[in-house]
Design goal:
The chain has about 525 residues and is α+β, with helices and mostly antiparallel strands. It has a domain of about 110 residues. Helix content is about 50%, strand content about 15%. It has 10 helices and 8 strands. Strand 2 and strand 3 form a beta hairpin. Helix 5 packs antiparallel against helix 10 and helix 7 packs across helix 9. It is elongated. The N terminus is likely disordered.
């Protein structure tokens, strides 16, 4: 659908009301974005932040510099005198990324997951064990001291160990192994599980799941960022739209104010009945109430926007009317944003899908551990030792190198604990698969719905433009008829209200277009995290 540029100025020496619609995309370059799985180049171009190009207003409602109303925080003329810089969309987004409490809180999930992983890595810490014994008095007087170092590794569940011990004095024959040569005994070896615990054990399960939890923290953060930036964008466009509609209400009031003196003069000259003065005064009262209501809507949206627009100290900053942009940015053809592969891209980027996929991997580890526990515990150990230094017995029975091997076996006959864990974990995986399927279906539905909304809003903009143009023509004709005595204030008021309503509708649909763009972008899973 092609929208033609529109310029409309109703009659009235004291009023300037310009409605200009310029279709097409902004000519600004793409702005980079980031997501859990980073989009490709074309995606960045389609989803770049745009729409604040100077000189391309979609809806421009320029305030009359003579209008100063105590209800308003600041007027257009005062804004010009203070040289206030309008708040742009990118500024709000930067504020959200840097200062929004819920995003900062979500970032702590990364630290929590990293701490959990570090704790799980403690299962593979090098362990040092030592003890000593002194037999001070008795038939056997002796002293022993030993130290043992163990190092478990991930590969195969193996544990390496090495040690040193010294034993001197008199020992009973059944404790002869505690006695060493003068230099002590060095030893070392390895323990290796052959069945249960070979591919997975409790220690490795905790470590691997902690790594998955660390990976899962990133989509959790991304989900918070998507939600926060989407809400901030919707709030920003609502605030801009309410400020535009406030200026429309200002124009309506100004029309009635400027017409009052003319009506009073015509009544004095006998061109109009006395009731025309009261009727216009009624319009003044009515339009003042409309202005107050519009001002309330601006203040309400500004308060809501302050939750996302924050100062350097992180505290909410209330935007002033003077900081509102003079115009909404130019709508652009949705074809530059929507692409055929966006559903597949959303299934890859959306954090809720990714989080469930990682959760399934965690359950698969639980299942592997439970199935491994069904196997008997069978481990093989090999250890070697050798004494050093002078012999303490004759013959020297401590001098030769010793090599030992040992096998351990353990099997609960019923194995009900492991079987129950297998049953529970398999049910959890089936349950999660159904949840994952629904989450994927929800993503597909979100993308399709957001695409329809964006395209239809784009089409409605053209109709809204035509409505504004036709309303302006009719208002102009009605005002001309009134000046020639062929109409009355009631009809003029109706035409003016309809023109204002058409202009407000154009503001609403233009803001809705950018809200639809925000929704579409969020449905694909692309956050606003890198803005200029």
């Amino acid at each position: 659908m092609t929208n033609q540029p529109l310029d409309w100025a109703p009659l009235g020496a004291s009023l300037v009301l310009i409605l200009a619609v310029i279709p097409g995309c902004s000519t600004g370059g793409p702005r980079p974005v980031a997501a859990y799985a980073r989009p490709d180049g074309p995606t960045l171009e389609r989803f770049g932040v745009s729409g604040f190009e100077p000189g391309q207003p979609a809806v421009s409602l320029i305030a009359d510099p003579k209008l100063v109303d105590p209800v308003l925080p600041i007027t257009g003329a005062e804004a010009a005198q203070e040289d206030v810089v309008p708040i742009e969309f990118s500024e709000v987004l930067r504020s959200v990324e840097r200062q929004f409490p819920l995003i900062l809180a979500a970032l702590e999930e990364v630290e929590i997951a990293a701490g959990t992983r570090l704790s799980a890595e403690g299962g593979f810490d090098t362990r040092v064990k030592a003890d000593s014994f002194l037999g001070l008095d008795g038939f056997y007087e002796n002293e022993t001291a030993k130290i043992l170092i163990e190092q478990p590794i991930e590969a195969g569940g193996a544990t390496f160990f090495g040690g040193y011990k010294v034993g001197a004095g008199d020992f009973p024959i059944w404790e002869g192994g505690l006695k060493t040569n003068e230099g002590g005994e060095f030893s070392g070896g390895v323990r290796l599980p052959l069945l249960a615990g070979r591919s997975i054990d409790a220690r490795r399960l905790a470590l691997w799941q902690s790594r998955l939890a660390e990976a899962q923290a990133e989509p959790i953060v991304l989900e918070k960022r998507l939600a926060a930036t989407r809400k901030a964008a919707l709030t920003y466009w609502k605030w801009v739209a309410t400020t535009q509609k406030l200026r429309i209400a200002e124009r309506l009031l100004l029309l009635a104010q400027d017409r009052q003196a003319v009506i009073e003069l015509r009544v004095e000259n006998g061109d109009l009945a006395d009731i025309a003065v009261d009727e216009n005064r009624r319009l003044l009262v009515e339009r003042e109430s409309i202005l107050i209501q519009s001002s309330r809507e601006v203040q309400q949206s500004a308060i809501e926007l302050s939750l996302y627009l924050r100062g350097e100290d992180g505290q909410p900053r209330m935007p002033r009317l003077a900081e509102a942009p003079e115009a909404l940015p130019s709508p652009f053809d949705p074809g530059s944003t929507i692409a055929d592969g966006d559903i597949e891209r959303a299934l890859m980027l959306r954090p809720e899908v990714r989080a469930l996929q990682i959760e399934r991997q965690r359950l698969e580890l639980d299942l592997a551990k439970a199935e491994n526990d069904l196997l008997p515990k069978l481990s093989l150990g090999v250890a070697g030792s050798r004494d050093t230094g002078g012999a303490v017995s004759n013959p020297d029975d401590k001098g030769p190198f010793e090599l030992d091997a040992f096998v351990d076996f353990d099997l609960p006959l019923q194995r009900r604990s492991a079987k129950g864990k297998v049953q529970v974990t398999e049910a959890k995986i089936r349950k999660l698969d159904r949840e994952l399927q629904f989450a994927q279906d929800r993503v597909v539905a979100d993308v399709r719905d957001a695409e329809v909304a964006l395209r239809q809003t784009w089409e409605i903009i053209g109709l809204a433009q035509q409505n504004v143009a036709l309303a302006g023509v009719l208002e102009q004709a009605e005002r001309l008829a009134f000046s020639e005595g062929e109409s009355d204030l009631l009809r003029v008021n109706i035409r003016e209200r309809r023109t204002a309503s058409a202009a407000s509708s154009l503001v609403d649909v233009t803001a809705e277009f950018f809200r639809a763009f925000v929704d579409y972008r969020a449905s694909v899973g692309v956050p606003y995290d890198e803005v200029k």
